[in-house]
Amino acid sequence: MIDERHEELAALHALDLLEGAELAAFERALAADPKLQALVRELREASAALAHTAAAAPAPAALKARILATIDRAERPAPDNVIRPGFGVWHILPWAAAACFGLSAVWLGQRASTAESQIVALRNEQTLTKVSLQTALQQLEIDRLVSAKAIEETTQKLAAATSDLGSTRSLLAARDEQVTSLSARITALASSATVLERQLGDTRQQVAQLTADLKAQGDLANYQITALASMIEGSPKSVAAAVWNPSKQEGVLKVENLPALAANEDYQLWIVDPRYPNPVDGGVFTVDPKTGARSISFKSKQPVEVINAFAVTRERKGGVPVAEGPFVLLGK
Amino acid sequence: MSTCLSFLSPGLLAVAGRDRAQADGYRDRMTLPAPTSPTPPDSDERQQIDAALVQRMAAGERDALGDLYDRFSGPLLGAAQQILRDSAEAQDVVHDAFVTMWEKAVTFDRTRGSAFAWAVTLVRNRAIDRVRMRRRRAELLEGAAPADLGYQESGGEATGRETVTIGEEARAVRAAVATLPLEQQRAVELAFFGGFTQEEIARKLAAPLGTVKARIRRGLLKLRDSLAVRP
Q1: CA A310, CA A308: separation in Å to the nearest integer?
Q2: Residue B41 CB coordination number (10 Å)
Q3: Would the CB atoms of B170 and A43 count as touching at under 8 Å?
Q4: CB A108 within 8 A of CB A96
Q5: In this complex, do B78 and A139 lie within 8 Å of one another by their Cβ atoms?
Q6: CA distance to A38, A54, B49, per residue, from B44 (Å)
């Protein structure tokens, strides 16, 4: 009974798939087991039959003729220099027989047979040597072709590499130039950056100024402008205008055609804020006795949020805390 | 032999020695003992005729070699072409195999194997040697992987391109192979025609090595059994 392991090895051996130590071990087992030998033979026959599965090729008559020609050449007498030792013995035998004078014909026959065997063996060895030599020369030619191809390819690769090296050097030089140019540009840009930074500072200052101006313009939008009308009978030309800046709690008052004051009198400005029970004091002023005009800046004595009206009264010199005199101008 | 080759370089001597060793290896593979199981009558008859031709070759009868060529050259050339994919190289291999059979005919012993198996072994080993050499060259030159052998295209049924009538033997063997599971067919064919090692076959089939070995074992055993029971 052959186990599966040996069946497997036998199959692989039949297909020449065993190598090295595995082959050696199996051949030792094979030599000692006739059943295993029979199995290998059967499997080798089965595997040989696989040749029939290939697409059958027509047998060329030329190939047959070539094979026959080859064996005809192989059957020609071998060169003298190869078989001479055998013939030497062959020719020497009669001389030896003559010298001995007593050797029997049977002994001579045995010697002749031995010599013929040697000749056959030498011929076989010569044929095998020729085959081996032919194979070796073919192998050498193949190796030569492969080496030549490899050298050719290496030379081509070397030429390509040299060309690549030249290109790389050119590229490197171009890159160096680019680096130099870029360095110069960087220096110029650094200088420009300094200038720009300075300009940026200036611009920031301008922006700050503009922002302040805009803020001021914004404040201007909040200014309250009030026209004051005359409250004096017989003097309708008296007019005035008041401009109030709420954020600064200050304003400008421009009057025209107000009557001239006595020496102990002042005009006094009042700001009417509903939060206070009495109008807030805006200060005293006089006018040009000839034109009755005056432009003054004034500040509120108390914080003012809402202005309902401006009023001007005629008071004693220096003004009073609470309006006492007659109203001269009033504007809401 | 070493005297005759003494003018050659050590490298060439090594090559020649390797070739001689291969030749010895082939001879050794054919020196197996007699089979223990009977072969079918028609197959045995064919083998008897083949063996008689080899005996006549051993006796120096040139015509016997011609007759053996007529009997074997079709499948031998087909197998060589399938392995080598080159008609000229296949003819060279078949030529060398027949010359070797002529030279070694005296050593042939029918009880140790059929003449056809001997001829197939000679052709296959020479063809595979060339394929492996070609692969080594290709790897050296380009590192290219060997091309697919394309068994599916030409390994199975006969095609219209065949110009030779398929014999009864070929039909029987193809029918036997067709009964194998596809994975066993593929493994056995790669082993027989591909010249690959076990590991290379496993890689080519993308299967574990143990699986590939089992497929080859089962496939070859089944093929043997199928061929043994045919009429």
Answers
A1: 7
A2: 9
A3: no
A4: no
A5: no
A6: 16, 23, 9
Rounded Cα–Cα distance for residues A297 and B124 (Å): 126
What distance in Å separates the CA atoms of residue A146 and residue A252, rounded to the nearest whole number?
Answer: 111
Q: How far is CA B48 from CA A190, B53, B224, in A?
A: 103, 9, 19
A297 has which bridge partners? A252
Measure in Å the smallest separation between the Cα of A8 and chain B Cα atoms.
5
Per-residue model confidence (pLDDT) at position A190: 94
Is A46 at the interface with chain B, CB within 8 A? Answer: yes
Residue B190 has pLDDT above 60, yes or no: yes
| Separation of alpha carbons A245 and A222, rounded Å | 7
Contact: A140, B174; criterion CB under 8 Å: no
* Cross-chain CB nearest to A54 (options B75, B121, B128): B75
Measured between CA atoms, the residue of chain B closest to residue A151 is B141
Are the beta carbons of A71 and B140 separated by less than 8 Å? Answer: no
Domains of chain B, earliest start first: 39-147 (1.10.1740.10), 165-231 (1.10.10.10)
Which residues are CB-contacts of A30 (< 8 A; sequence separation ≥ 6)? Answer: A13, A36, A37, A40
pLDDT higher than 80, residue B56: yes
Chain B residues within 8 A of A55 when measuring between CB atoms = 78, 81-82, 154-155, 158-159, 161-162
Are the Cβ atoms of B197 and A17 closer than 8 angstroms? Answer: yes
Q: What is the crossing angle of helices B115-141 and B10-30, to 10°?
A: 150
Tokens describing residue B218: 């089962």
Provide the shortest C-alpha distance from residue A95 to chain B (in Å): 28
Indicate the DSSP class of residue A243.
Answer: E
pLDDT digits (tens, 9 = 90+) for A193-233: 999 999 899 888 988 988 887 777 767 778 889 999 988 87
What's the Cα-to-Cα distance from B143 to each of A150, B85, B134, B137, B176, rounded to whole Å?
12, 20, 12, 9, 38
CB pair distance less than 8 Å for B141 and A146 = yes
Q: Contact B73/A19, CB-based, under 8 Å?
A: no
Tell me which chain B residues have a C-beta less than 8 angstroms from the C-beta of A58.
Answer: 74, 77, 163-164
Summarize the confidence of residues A168-195 as an average pLDDT: 93
Burial class (CB in 10 A: 0-12, 13-18, 19+), A249: middle
CA distance readout (Å), A115 to A112, A119, A122, A223, B161: 5, 6, 10, 147, 55
Taking the CA atoms of residue B158, residue A50, residue B188 and residue B190 in that order, the dihedral angle to the nearest 10 degrees is: -70
Q: What ipTM was estimated for this complex?
A: 0.70
**What number of other Cβ atoms are within 10 A of residue A39's Cβ?**
25
**What is the amino acid identity at position A74?**
A
CA closest to A66 among chain B residues: B95
Phi and psi angles of residue A313, each rounded to the nearest 5 degrees, phi first: -120, 160
